[in-house]
Write a structure and sequence with these properties.
The complex is a heterodimer of chains A (233) and B (596).
Chain A (H helix, E strand, L loop, with lengths): L1 E8 L9 E8 L6 H12 L18 E4 L2 E4 L11 E5 L6 E3 L2 E2 L2 H8 L20 H6 L17 H5 L5 H12 L7 H8 L13 H5 L6 H14 L4
Parallel strand pairs in A: 1-5
Antiparallel strand pairs in A: 1-2, 3-4, 3-5, 6-7
Helix pairs in contact in A: 2-5, 5-6, 5-8
Chain B lengths: L1 E10 L3 H10 L5 E5 L15 E2 L10 H11 L6 H20 L14 E8 L6 E6 L5 H15 L3 E4 L1 E9 L2 E9 L5 E11 L20 H8 L4 E2 L4 E8 L9 H4 L3 E3 L7 H4 L9 H13 L10 E4 L2 H10 L14 H7 L1 H11 L8 E10 L3 E2 L5 E3 L6 E7 L4 E2 L11 H23 L11 H12 L6 H15 L3 E2 L1 H18 L13 H25 L8 E2 L7 H4 L1 E8 L2 E8 L13
Parallel strand pairs in B: 1-2, 1-9, 2-6, 9-17, 15-18, 19-20
Antiparallel strand pairs in B: 3-5, 4-5, 7-8, 8-9, 10-21, 11-14, 12-13, 13-14, 16-17, 21-22
The chains are: A alpha+beta (233), B alpha/beta (596).
């Protein structure tokens, strides 16, 4: 099928300001948007720049705004988008070149929530025990691949990138609700801040954008509740 | 040009690199250089599990794991290293759990385990649940957990730095040259010890489970610097990639009871591996699939087969096999169980195929998956450069880039994640220990010249070739002639083609000549690496006149222990590639015929 691919272009070495370029391509309905971008880069314009690695939705490199919504370019197919496809960088982070944005503010927020397991007791000789139910409690938020689809779909983050954002709260949630972890209270304190969870206005963009189907807004809600009640349940 | 100095520099931020960094950083000033953000590394794509004889479900022993891995390797694995790995495995997995890794759990709260290909109860010969798993996201959990722990331990990260050269002075590793992607500038990293953990090179083949980033940079760099590449003819084809796309469908599907069926609806593996059937080792199953398709028994005569994990199919064959739960009740699954144990597989199939594995079988074909070969090391991760295993001071390698060799001619499923954590850890410890007793070697004055020459050549070419097109031609010829079955004639043809492509590569014209995130330039450089490794693979495979593990020759269909029970060492020379050989370390298990 014929596809019209409109792509945001900005090369800091040659362009004063961004523009869109249009490519007419022959595509299979089952092609990924990433396949189209690879074709343009390989055969039409080598300057087209984007990040990618695994190409099947698990590494989180290729978050982009596609037809106005955040997707991983490798996890959305032409047949689900139609003949006109517009690709632009994710919002709220500085554009460096084409679809490549500065991810540093995103990772800075991530690092601020103690994004690692903390348990200061001497571990047993074997594994720590955890029931199936306890493990299930935080299962959803272990799936995060840090692609930033959620955070860069959030109007509160667009307004102020000091807001830790949905992805960081998802990470915090993964540890707060892990029965083995001991730093839940500290993380709740970090998130009980003017740039913490209360910047979330339950708009649900993040949940819709998540390519891993994490119930992001729900996770944020659970963290809010834990802060309000002082109980991690 | 900026120069940085660290005791230990780790190249690559997948499981092996992060594990190495975590351990090295406990005592030495350590930096990690990665061409990707660490969490993008391909470890994250591993699905089914990490092997360790915890015995949480059924009786199991490291000794059985040891034997299974030796047998799986078709006796080419070095037994001292395999024994070491299997003994270390149990503690290594507990250690991951102590770092917070969210393993799936058994009803009594222990780490959950599932059967995987080639892992057996050594008394009954039946599959044993040895793969410790977190749903079908085990690699993702390992990668995230290790990255998190590295942040906790304040490891220095240089993200999106592409390492392009290794610096050697007087036989010592003294540093690496890297390009910072954001600026296009060269940086020198001066170090006392360097650990390569750059992963594999499965992008040589057309149908592959491997990430775009899997371009063999580590082996290509060290090979150019005169370090041998070991056993490169052994490359694993995983039986179950999604048809045409190559995306991995974990062996865990078969561990949970999934069955391979041909176009006649027959469970053909009973003919090829009567005891363990669909849980034979990967080389055996991939070859069986190829033969079925060659015989016209693909689905509708096409080049794919069915992997069926529908509950009714699983339960039918589990009953025929008399498979039992640990409590002795018959093995029966529900759709919900399949969904909860294999959520990502279900998601992949729905997304890319529009197929729901709970209701329909999955179309699969073998897919290029894993490099058994790589940079030769001993079991401490030290790089060894000749037949006598002489250590190159200051240089280490771990993970898929390394060839210890624990996987020999064919890796067992779950042993790659195990390899990362065991040998990543020991390489990190050794490197730090070495660095603390060593002083910095003086850097050569022309440190970046060799790299600059390669990149200037690419930037200044005015030829008419497109790198993308050369890549397509390489992948095609490798898939046709240097894949699951090989012949002298086919491989000669492939070698000629690779030489042609290497010539044409000199006439590649880039579309991008800028400095900032010039991914066009880096992709072209990576293609050069792939072409070099395709050549090494083919030359090594042509010479080996036997069939062993993943290397199956139609013209030499038998294993030949008299002449070929030895490792290949391929070295770059003036005239091309020299091949030498070194003995296999056999301690406990004498080679015998391999039957599953």
């Amino acid at each position: 099928m014929q596809v019209t691919l409109k792509v945001f272009r900005y090369n800091p070495e040659t362009d004063k300001k961004p523009h869109y370029a249009t490519y007419h391509l022959e595509a299979e309905p089952t092609d990924r948007v990433l396949d189209l971008l690879e074709h343009v880069k390989g055969y039409i314009d080598g300057t087209l720049s984007f990040r990618r690695s695994c190409a099947h939705g698990v590494c989180g490199s290729d978050a982009m705004r596609i037809n106005g919504r955040n997707y991983l370019a490798c996890k959305v197919l032409v047949k689900d988008l139609g003949r006109k496809i517009t690709v632009a960088p994710i919002l709220g982070l500085r554009v460096i070149k084409d679809m490549i944005v500065d991810m540093e503010p995103f990772f800075e927020n991530y690092r601020s929530v103690l994004p690692y397991f903390i348990n200061n007791d001497l571990p047993p000789n074997q594994e720590r025990l955890q029931s199936i139910e306890e493990r299930e409690r935080y299962d959803d938020t272990t799936k995060c691949i840090l692609c930033a689809c959620c955070t860069t779909s959030c109007p509160s983050f667009w307004a102020n990138d000091k807001y830790v954002g949905p992805a960081s709260i998802v990470t915090a949630h993964r540890f707060i609700f892990d029965s083995r972890d001991q730093a839940g209270a500290e993380r709740l304190q970090i998130l009980n801040d003017q740039f913490g969870v209360y910047r979330c206005h339950t708009i649900f963009n993040c949940t819709e954008a998540c390519p891993r189907d994490i119930q992001v807004t729900q996770a944020i809600g659970e963290v809010k509740k834990a802060i309000a009640t002082g109980k991690i349940e | 040009m900026k120069t940085h100095q660290f005791d230990v520099v780790v190249v690559g931020a997948g499981g092996a690199g992060l594990m190495a960094a975590l351990y090295a950083s406990k005592s030495a000033n350590t930096a990690v250089l990665s061409k990707l953000y660490p969490t993008r590394s391909h470890t994250g794509a591993a699905q089914g599990g990490v092997g360790a004889a915890l015995g949480n479900i059924e009786e199991d022993h490291p000794e059985w794991h040891f034997f299974d891995s030796v047998k799986g390797s078709d006796y080419l694995g070095d037994q001292d290293a395999i024994e070491f790995m299997c003994n270390e495995a149990v503690q290594a997995v507990y250690e991951l759990e102590h770092m917070g890794l969210p393993f799936s759990r058994t009803p009594d709260g222990k780490i959950a385990q599932r059967p995987f290909g080639g892992h057996t109860n050594n008394i009954t010969g039946k599959p044993v649940p040895r793969a410790c798993y977190a749903a079908d996201r085990t690699g993702h959990m390992i990668l995230q957990t290790l990255y998190q722990q590295c942040l906790k331990n304040k490891v220095n990260f240089y993200d999106e730095y592409q390492v392009v050269d290794l610096l050697l002075v007087k036989g010592h590793a003294t540093g690496v040259v890297a390009i910072q992607l954001a600026t296009g500038e060269f940086h020198i990293f001066h170090a006392k010890a360097i650990i390569f953990a750059t992963g594999g090179h499965g992008r040589i083949w057309e149908i592959t489970s491997n990430a775009y980033a899997y371009t063999g940079d580590g082996v290509a760099i060290t090979f150019r610097r005169g370090i041998p590449a070991q056993d490169m003819e052994f490359f694993q084809f995983h039986p179950t990639g999604i048809f045409k796309l190559g995306i991995l469908i974990t062996e865990g599907v078969r561990g949970e009871g999934g069955i391979l069926l041909n176009g006649e609806g027959e469970r053909f593996m009973t003919r090829y591996a009567p005891t363990v059937k669909d849980l034979a080792s990967r080389d055996v199953i991939s070859r069986a699939m190829y033969l079925e398709m060659q015989a016209g028994r693909g689905i509708n005569g096409k080049r794919y087969l069915h992997l069926d994990v529908r509950p009714e199919t699983v339960n039918k064959y589990a009953a025929l096999d008399e498979r039992k739960r640990p409590d002795g009740t018959p093995y029966v699954v529900t759709a919900e169980e399949i969904l909860s144990k294999l959520p990502d597989i279900v998601d992949f199939c729905r997304t890319y195929l529009g197929v729901d594995p709970i209701a329909q079988p999955m179309p699969v074909q073998p897919t290029a998956h894993y490099a058994m070969g790589g940079i030769p090391t001993n079991k401490y991760g030290e790089v060894v450069i000749d037949e006598d295993n002489t250590v190159l001071p200051g240089l280490y390698a771990a993970g898929e880039v390394a060839c210890v060799s624990i996987h020999g001619a064919n890796r067992l499923g779950t042993n790659s994640l195990l390899d990362l954590i065991v040998f990543g850890k020991h390489a990190g410890l050794r490197a730090a220990e070495y660095a603390l007793g060593a002083s910095f070697q003086r850097l050569p004055a022309d440190a970046a010249d060799f790299s600059r020459a390669q990149f200037d050549a690419l930037l200044n070419n005015t030829g008419s070739e497109k790198a993308a097109q050369l890549g397509v031609e390489m992948k095609e010829v490798m898939n046709d002639h240097v894949a699951m079955f090989r012949t002298e004639q086919g491989m000669q043809k492939a070698l000629e083609k690779i030489h042609e492509l290497q010539e044409r590569f000199k006439n590649v014209q880039l579309g991008d000549r800028g400095k900032i995130f010039n991914t066009d330039l880096l992709n072209a450089w990576e293609l050069g690496n792939l072409l070099d490794l395709a050549e090494v693979t083919t030359v090594s495979a042509l010479a080996r006149q036997e069939s062993r593990g993943a290397h199956a020759r139609e013209d030499f269909p038998k294993r030949d222990d008299v002449n070929w029970l030895k490792h290949t060492l391929a070295t770059k020379s003036q005239s091309g590639i020299d091949l030498r050989y070194k003995p296999v370390m056999i301690t406990r298990f004498q080679p015998k015929e391999r039957v599953y």
